Amino acid sequence: MQKFDLSCGLTKSQIGIIKYRVKRGIERHLPILPEFVETKLFFEGRYAWAYSWCLLNNAFPIRPGDEIRLEVVAKLKKEFHQYQKRKRYEFLAKINLREDIYQSEVLIRVKLA
Fold it and tell me: Is the whole-model pTM more than 0.90?
């Protein structure tokens, strides 16, 4: 397992786009905090979850047409622990990379403990 960074052969902008798309997919599986907390975070431009990324691929460099497999851990930030019992969620993401990175297919699966 490796960090999901420039060493995999993708550019900084490509990695940013992939992370953004995966985060949006993961948000559907994460619990929602109370409305007043979510509203406050929205107006402050912040998030209640911190993400860590782990690349599961073995073949480098990664090119269009390849499949990227990631393990993503979403942890609830400490200041929000009073709102949720479960504070950590793990996900497996599979991205079928295409020439146009915005058209890449992203599949998210909750990793069972």
Answer: no
